[in-house]
Structures are given as C-alpha cells and as structure tokens.
Amino acid sequence: MLSSLPYPSHSHFLTMLESAEESYPSVHSAGRMVMTDLLKPEEIKKALDAFAAETFDPKKFFEMVGMKAMSAENVKKVFQVLDVDGSGFIEEEELMFVLKGFSKDGRDLTDAETKAFLKAADKDGDGKIGIDEFEALVHE
C-alpha cells in the first residue's frame, strides 16, 4: 500500500505543486511551461471529467487531452511539467497525484491505478518513469 511508503504526504505534495506554480507562473516569466501552454484547457477538463469516477487509463487519457497527436518534443515538455520535483523522473509518489499536474481539480489516483500506470510505463523496471518511457507510453 502506498500510504506505508516513506514518501511525502498528500499535503506535502500539494504544497510542492503550489510552490512550483507560484515560482513558475508562466513560460514567459520563468522559463518553465505550465500545462495550459501545451494543452487545451477544455480538453483537459473533458478528460478529467471522463475519469472522475471511472478507472484511470493513462493511454486513453493522453489521447483525450491531445497528447497522442503531439510531437515527441512536446510530450517531453508535458513530462517536465509533471516532474514536480525536477528529478528527471516521475516517481510513484508523484504519479499518484499526476492528474493534479493537468489541473488543480484533478483527482488522486488510487493505489491500484498508480501501480498499473507505473507498470505500463516503467519499461526498465527501476520503479520510476523516465522521460523516454513516458513519451513511449503516450505514443503506444
């Protein structure tokens, strides 16, 4: 169960996310992209609404928000927005809150959804998703 792992709490993660948003309000002022620089807000909302009560399917979600049609370069920019701690990887604890990276209204993934997402993307088995693994999952 994820709650037993020694990772930051949900509130700590949200504080990190909010701090990143305050520090990087737009691509123009700070050099860091925000999700709406890359994706249409109405497509994000539609995809989030579709998975509000349904089991999260990352491939379907990425297609709904328009990422499958994006260039590899732009998908990697989305990855960089989602990599809240800037480690170069999306770790399991970040993955649980990945939908909040698309919108503050995004829900948390369940433990099962988080593990399924990680399993689908983590091709080298290191327990985290690298930028190339993320891009490959989006374009699968």
Automatic annotation (TrEMBL):
<dbReference type="Pfam" id="PF13499">
    <property type="entry name" value="EF-hand_7"/>
</dbReference>
<dbReference type="InterPro" id="IPR011992">
    <property type="entry name" value="EF-hand-dom_pair"/>
</dbReference>
<feature type="domain" description="EF-hand">
    <location>
        <begin position="109"/>
        <end position="140"/>
    </location>
</feature>
<comment type="similarity">
    <text>Belongs to the parvalbumin family.</text>
</comment>
<comment type="function">
    <text>In muscle, parvalbumin is thought to be involved in relaxation after contraction. It binds two calcium ions.</text>
</comment>
<feature type="domain" description="EF-hand">
    <location>
        <begin position="70"/>
        <end position="105"/>
    </location>
</feature>
<protein>
    <recommendedName>
        <fullName>Parvalbumin</fullName>
    </recommendedName>
</protein>
<keyword id="KW-0479">Metal-binding</keyword>
<dbReference type="InterPro" id="IPR002048">
    <property type="entry name" value="EF_hand_dom"/>
</dbReference>
<dbReference type="InterPro" id="IPR008080">
    <property type="entry name" value="Parvalbumin"/>
</dbReference>
<dbReference type="InterPro" id="IPR018247">
    <property type="entry name" value="EF_Hand_1_Ca_BS"/>
</dbReference>
<keyword id="KW-0106">Calcium</keyword>
